[in-house]
Amino acid sequence: MEISVIVFPGSNCDRDIAVSLKKFSKQNPKMIWHKERSLPKSDLIVLPGGFSYGDYLRCGSMAANSPIMSEVIKNAESGAYIIGICNGFQILTETNLLPGTLIRNRELSFICKNLSLKVENSETGFTHKYSNKEIIEIPVAHNEGNYFADKNIIDNIEDKNLIAFRYCDENGLVNDETNPNGSKNNIAGIINEKGNILGMMPHPERATDKTAGLIDGEKFFISILESIQ
Amino acid sequence: MIKITKELIDEHGINNEEYNFILESLNREPTITELGIFSAMWSEHCSYKSSKTWLKKLPTSNDKVIQGPGENAGVIDLGNGDAAVFKMESHNHPSFIEPYQGAATGVGGIMRDVFTMGARPVALLNSIRFGDVKNTKTKHLLTGVVSGIGGYGNCMGVPTVGGEVEFNSCYNDNILVNAMCVGIAKINKIFYSKASGIGNSVVYVGSKTGRDGIHGATMASAEFDDSSDEKRPTVQVGDPFAEKLLLEACLELMKEDIIIAIQDMGAAGLTSSAVEMASKGNVGIDLNLDNLPCRETFMTAYEMMLSESQERMLMIIEPEKEKEAKSVFDKWGLDFATIGVLTDTNRIIINHENEKKADIPLNILESGAPSYDRPYKIVTNSEIDQSYLLKSDEKVINILRKLISSPNLCSRRWVWEQYDHMVMNDTVLRPGGDSAIIRIHDTNKALAVCSDSTPRYCAADPIEGGKQVVAESWRNITSVGAKPIAITDCMNFGNPEKEEIMGQFAGVITGMIEACKILDYPVVSGNVSLYNETNGKGINPTPAIGGVGLLDSLDHFSTPSIKRENDNIIILGETKGHLCQSIYAYEIFGDSKGLPPKVDLLMEKKIGDTVRDLVKKLKIDTVHDISDGGLLIALTEMSVAGNIGFNLNINQKNLNNGFLFGEDQGRYIILVEDKNLSETIEYIKKNNISYSSIGKSYGKKIKIDKNNEADIEEIRDLYENWFENYLKVN
Q1: If you measure CA to CA, which chain A residue comes closest to B444?
Q2: Of A55, A112, A211, the CB nearest to B419
Q3: How far A28 CA sits from the closest chain B CA (Å)?
Q4: Is the ipTM value over 0.90, yes or no?
Q5: For a Cys staple, B178 with which of B52, B144, B490, B631, CB 3.0–4.6 Å?
Q6: How far apart are the first and last CA of chain A?
Q7: What is the model's pTM?
Q8: Cα B522 from Cα B652, distance rounded (Å)
Q9: CATH of region A3-227
Q10: Hey, is B265 helix, strand or coil?
């Protein structure tokens, strides 16, 4: 299996995701600089978290126009798995690989904390090691994580079961109080209809190491690595 | 040509004596560019003219110190070829004028000091102080500073893992923003600022130069008055994205053997980096400003030399390696310009548009800089009988409720949840404990880091206060089981031209020297910020101490949270019940009379060494030091963190407010399982340390006696929601 991590200027979770991928795949992912115009054949492409181009414009909008992105889109269309975490999720919405957008957190401040998530769909290539409706604990760290889309889009992703993760409390309660950033329907992560693209605001790579606190991200990595085998 | 008038000289903060020295040394009138250079280099901020005679006395070495003060940052040996590089610096005045940008660029500046030495920043800390919570400006300053710190550090991808926040009316018009950065480097790959090699190129990299921050160093060396808001244009604007690129580009270039010397352009910008690098190397430097990357048009030599635009570095490299170096900066989209050459003249010569704008012998700028042995008077409070503080009609549990939800004791969660404290995935112990623990990447070792100060003690008794700040830092590192190695200090004081203020400085340094020596905890870097006064009123003396320690192995460390029920609660160290200068005295009685608790440094060392042994050898995993608020506050914090309550079992005749809220120094709370109890007690006794067993962890209630108990949940709400409630009300 071939895994590529795209590095944009301002990416800052590229090393963390590479460490987690290596831990479970026993191989180093290829780190691909955003200026590249060709991509090695990849079964999985990861867009990491960070502040691409400083996020001075709308988050992810500059990165969405990087030279490498046309290759990422081509690979996505031909069925490669794509994961966008945090800033990577923002980039995926900016390229229209995923619907909707991520706007400023409801409370207007950056949030960094552990949160409970409910695995809404455990039959995706990214989540099949979790049991259905499993409650997991994964950290978030973002300023623009408030998922927004119009009613048609939200209805569509609800109807088609495209929501991978929802914010909840430790008992699985999904409501406004357990919504950390104002996201529509407490959405924390979604997939596309074809099921090969996932975007999520929480950081599973920060939950794969007991010493650093959390391990609920392990099943995420095991799921996707099994899917691309 | 601009005529140098008396007014102009005054505006540059140069006094008569200093100006006469300039005339004598140059044997002519200075140009305006030269006047600007003298003004910046001789500002208090750059020259340490009031403080250096005292700073020289601080202990600066032990067997782990690789580089003490005098470089961009201090360096200590962590073993296995790794080094920690760290420093703390103030950005007080800019943060008061423009809190977001002031705080952000403070963080940016301190990170450059660390990565300019070849280290990757792995942790950020801060120490921030605001005026009274009722002051109309406080909310605005607090939210601005916190989001500025977060805005910069979060974008850089360096976790902000620790810090402190204090509110006190003495900071009403002069807030303090001190930022600390810790980086990790390989010992054989540390870069210094000493220029060498006549004929080598002087290279400018990073962002372009603009007109921001001109005279920042001079501003930082003057008192504030009501017109200070007009100084907003001198505050620099941060660009963390540019700094992230600069960090990666510098570290990439540093893998090769190309850079001979490097220094960031911090306070006094190009002036101080060029002068300091050349002076250290005992060489001269010729600059041609025609090549300087500028983002504004028609900039003069004066403006270019004094701009404090951020995210810039100056490097010395061999001319034949310029091409290779440039390719790295091209990749990262950063400017790279050769702006000068090293010479054998020992002078700084500046040319711009075919005109010589400055020509100054370096020795008069650096070693000729003024140094003042300012008169001082150490003033302490008088000792008083504290018995009136023991008598309170309020029930103990209500006092606890009040203290735990007071601005200076409540949880700082609202603050540190706005900082990404986990990125890099090596944060083992997050903010909220005594120290944060940061794993050294790819190893089983870790750094313990903290930042602390107790200004109210320093105001009441500068010498004891100076001892206490160092001891408190040492204790916080010890509390997680790590070995304290060295500190960085950020000394925030008022106007040193006043005898009593200079006495505060002299006294605090005197106390620090004693503590650093006895605890083997030297100062390896730091910064002095004087003239923290507004309209003639000074702040409390505030020496912020950034501590760094080493955990040899992550197999055994301790944290404050209570982990099990039925553990024995043991206090190490003697509880005398000292209430003067305590948070209790201030919050319950509005009292700030009398002397702070004394620090017995020899006993401090003995107890701390024992605590570390207990963590390592007897696997004690729950430790918290007793500091602000005293024993009951410390224990409550442990309870809230672990969500397990306690039952105290104390003889009623000993159970008074001095025992519960006194701030006697050198004490720790440890929790011990029954099965380890006898061995632990034996070890404590063997080391001749006084201890007492005061109860057990139990249930979900905090229980002092039958009349004083509360649910943890209720106390947690009080403890954790102060900030949100404070900021909600308009």
Answers
A1: A211
A2: A112
A3: 15
A4: yes
A5: B490
A6: 6
A7: 0.96
A8: 43
A9: 3.40.50.880
A10: coil
